[in-house]
Amino acid sequence: MATNILVLVGLATRRPCRGDQVFEASELCHPYAEQESWIAKTQPQPKSEATVRTAFSVARQAGGTFAQPFARAALDVWQNRRRLMKPILCLVMFTLAVAGAPAAPIPTSLQEALTFHASFDHGPDADFGPGDRRLFSAPSMKHPRTGTPGLPTNGAVSIAKGEGRFGDALRFHRKTPELVFFQGERNFSYAKLNWSGAVSFWLRLDPDTDLEAGFCDPLQITPREWNDGAFWVDFSKDERPRHFRLGAFADREVWDPNKRDYDALPASERPVVTVTRPPFSRDHWTHVVFTFANFNTGKKDGTATLYLDGKAQGTMSGWRNTVSWEPSEVIAMLGISYTGLLDELAFFNRALTAAEVRQLFAVPGGVATLHP
């Protein structure tokens, strides 16, 4: 009977699979795949065709109908014993390991903390949330930002079928004055005392090629302005490569009562986390999470952390983050001056731990698996 092993599969460039994934498989995979695009290291190869057949029987049953053609093809390759085809065998076992392995348990802690999810798989409206799930559009960012349900009629934003991180996604075709947003009330949890939370979503773009001149905010959450009781992530306008930043702003009268020129402020006086070389690309999706904790405590103990692809990029701390919101006025604005894909927007009612952010990054099927 084939024994369980660990198989690490990478490209010839020796870059690991995204997420440095390690999978369990049978001992079938050949230990070396020289001169080919797949590299694998494993325990000793199987001793006989009978062992191969047993291993594939197990994998085929675990993988179901999807795995059967791969199992048959790989067995044929083994029987032919052609050296140049052995890398394909490793690829097949990698596929079977993913298709046939038992699904990881869904983290209960993430399920309980989730308050809102928009997958964009069934249109622009959100899948899950206690508040208004409709996506709204407005002619511009000018107040009042009331809007009407649905996407802008000018075609600047659309549903990208089959192009999402999971399923469909929201595509922003060009920079446009039109605004799209979700209502924050009840969807984005707010507390007047000891407030915390987290936001998760995925982006796909090349910032230096796809974005037009000026600042770009893929997400901004506030009832007012970007510097007055607001959360946002943005791409800077001047640097190359463009910086990616998290802003977590208390009420302006709290953090900047003298209303100074923001551009003239030293970096230490800006409530911002900056990533100078972010990993965004047209070739793959990038996971963005930010968490915040100890807001509205009246103390200088507020923190906010930015994560990319499950890894912490920086934390701002030691701020008195007093945020006075009227929940009915809060909106989550998407794709401000943005060009690219956005998917899997989710809100949580507390700050996620670093381990939970990694779980969220890797959870099979995305946020949809966390709610009914």
Overview of this protein structure:
With 372 residues, this protein is α+β, with helices and mostly antiparallel strands. It has helices spanning 49-63, 68-80, 86-100, 108-113, 207-210, 252-255, 354-362, and strands at 5-10, 23-25, 39-41, 114-118, 135-138, 148-149, 157-160, 169-172, 179-183, 195-204, 216-222, 230-235, 244-249, 272-275, 286-295, 302-308, 311-319, 331-336, 340-348. The strands form 3 sheets. Strands 4, 7, 8, 10, 15, 16, 17 and 19 form an 8-stranded antiparallel β-sheet that branches. An 8-stranded antiparallel β-sheet has the order 6-5-9-18-11-12-13-14, with no helix packed on it. α1 (49-63) runs antiparallel to α2. The longest helix has 15 residues, at 49-63. The relative contact order is 0.15.
Task: Put the structure in a nutshell.
The chain has 372 residues and is α+β, with helices and mostly antiparallel strands. The protein is 18% helix and 30% strand. It starts with a strand and ends in a 10-residue tail after the last helix.
